[in-house]
Write a structure and sequence with these properties.
The chain is mainly α. The longest helix is centred in the middle third of the chain and has 21 residues. Pfam families: Sigma70_r2, Sigma70_r3, Sigma70_r4.
């Protein structure tokens, strides 16, 4: 196979869209052992470095050095370039941005688990996040817990347990804004009143059966919002409904959980 020598710009933004598509196709068709693959890979990574830097900047000011975040974001970018499948017809940025953000979030998760969690659950939580992204690209929507379980050869309960392990790096999930803006009402506010049951989300024994009994769509939306760190707009795109519908379902589901937890003896 003949591989055209790619231009290797010193900074991003110098390749045309057609050139980028061509490079991705060449990269996908090049054997991993072929030395030309590294040249193609370097050209693409260099082209999108500004995207990684932009994402790192979004996460700065949270106790981690910006330069360290840039390095982590670049690792995510490299992973995105390596894993992107141009034959699927999707835009690279729509795949790369969540991949890079996922890498940065994993960095924070690994560094800031607020309570002690077994290593098995930490690894399971990260596996679920990775598989969810891959299934989401393939399906064009958010995967259900059942689909995630099937992909990982787990039970739905095990997937639920892995997702709930994410509570350990949210110091308290109910204090997180429930809307799109940082000034919006928190989960606790959405529930309508202070609720000690939901403020102790770490109480898996009480919460797990309630989550398991939810309809699959409502459970998926809840998991993506509070355990998957996705905005309502992102969830709407994943699930295939409007953001307003997501907001309404979240409110109804949270009210249901609050009532159930309040009824617990």
């Amino acid at each position: 196979m003949t591989v055209a020598k790619p231009r290797t710009p010193a900074s991003g933004g110098e390749l045309t869209e057609d050139e980028k598509v061509s490079l991705f196709k060449q990269l996908a068709a090049t054997d991993p052992a072929d030395p030309r693959r590294e040249t193609l890979r370097t050209a693409l990574v260099t082209e999108y470095l500004s995207v990684a830097e932009h994402i790192a900047r979004r996460f700065s000011g949270r106790g981690e050095a910006y330069d360290d975040l840039v390095q982590v974001a670049r690792v995510g970018l490299i992973n995105a370039v390596d894993r992107f499948e141009p034959e699927r017809g999707s835009d690279f940025l729509s795949f790369a941005v969540p991949t890079i953000m996922g890498e940065v979030r994993r960095h924070f998760r690994d560094a800031s688990w607020s309570v002690r969690v077994p290593r098995r659950l930490k690894e399971l939580h990260l596996q679920i996040g990775q598989v969810s992204g891959e299934l989401g690209q393939r399906l064009g929507r958010a995967p259900t817990p059942t689909e995630i379980a099937r992909a990982l050869d787990l039970t739905v309960d095990e997937v639920s347990e892995g997702l709930q392990a994410g509570n350990a790096y949210y110091a308290i999930s109910v204090d997180k804004p429930a809307g799109e803006e940082s000034e919006s009402a928190s989960l606790a506010d959405t529930l309508g009143e202070e609720d000690n049951g939901l403020q102790s989300v770490e109480n898996h024994e009480a919460l797990q059966p309630l989550l398991r009994d939810l309809p699959e769509r409502e459970r998926t939306i809840l998991m993506l919002r509070f355990f998957g760190n996705m905005t309502q707009t992102q969830i709407a795109k994943r699930v295939g409904i409007s953001q307003m519908h997501v907001s309404r379902l979240l409110a109804q589901t949270l009210q249901h959980l609050r009532e159930k937890l309040t009824d617990e003896p």
